[in-house]
Structures are given as structure tokens and as C-alpha cells.
Amino acid sequence: MARFKGDYKAAFEAAASELIEEGIKDRAERMQAIDALIDEYINATGETPDAKQIERLTDYILREELFDSNPDKITREEYPILSERQLHRRRSMEVPLESVAEHIGDGGKIHRAPKRRKRTLRENLFMDEAVKSRNKERRRKYAEFTRPGPVKTYFLSERVPQK
Fold first, then answer.
1. In 46-120, where does DSSP find H-type helix?
2. Cβ neighbours of residue 22 closer than 8 Å, sequence gap 6 or more
3. pLDDT tens digit string along 5-57?
4. Fewer Cβ neighbours under 10 Å: the N or C end of the chain?
5. Nearest to 112 by CA among 98, 130, 125
6. How far apart are CA 38 and CA 44, in angstroms?
7. Residue ranges of the domains in the chain?
């Protein structure tokens, strides 16, 4: 009880650090020691410890899961616990479903609207030259097609006798 007098928050931080440095192997023993430390702190001060210190102690309880660096632990364990780094690595490799499943059919065919590729400068220069030469020919054919032709006259007044 006397260990949480004066600056009791700093004293609890030091006590938590000592407990973590002990490195208790058995999880049940670790949990009992942490419960005893927190109960002692609450009885001495009437307050709960800081959230930061509680998080440090919970990380100490889950030491085996958090320090397991095996990337396949998701498939090995029923309820895996990922460290922040493992969670970041997992999320960086995931692909959102909207971008994949939305446009791919059962047979693997992509059904999204086609997207045009931008032409390069070299392709644009080539197209300009080719189009100019084709435009001359097109203009000539169009002028020939739209030029007025000879007028054909038909006489409809002549009747064809019926049988």
C-alpha cells in the first residue's frame, strides 16, 4: 500500500515496468500478478490506472500472440491477434472488393467499361500526317459526290394501255 504515495501515477508506471521486466512465462500467473497490481493501485488511490499503462499490461498478457511474427498465423489460429505492424502489413496486401468483385464475372471476364489509352506524342504526330493526306482524298470524293449531276426528265403523261 505504501508504494503508491505521492506521485502515484509515476509509481504505478514504475511498478508496471518492473512487472513486465520479470518476464513471467505462464499466462495465468501473469494475469494474477497484473490483477493484484491493479487492485492494489485502486485500493490505494481510489482511481483506475491510466489507459496507457493498462494497454502496456494487456500487451504483456498477450505477449505470445503479439510477438508471433509468423505471417500464416491467421490460418493456424481460430481467433488470431495481430500486432499493429502485422495488421498494417495485412491491410496493405488486401484489395478492396469494390474494385475487384464489382466488375469481374463468374468466368473471370472483366465487365467494366473500357478505358481508352492516351496516344503518345509520336503517335499523334504520325496520325496528323496520315490524316492530312487522307483528308485531301476524302475532300475530293465528297466534292465529286455532292456536285450536281445532269437533270433527267421523265414524262408521266403517256399512259400505258391496260390489258
1. 51-61, 63-67, 73-76, 84-93, 97-100
2. 33
3. 778 888 889 999 999 999 889 989 999 999 999 999 998 888 889 999 999 99
4. C
5. 98
6. 10
7. 2-61
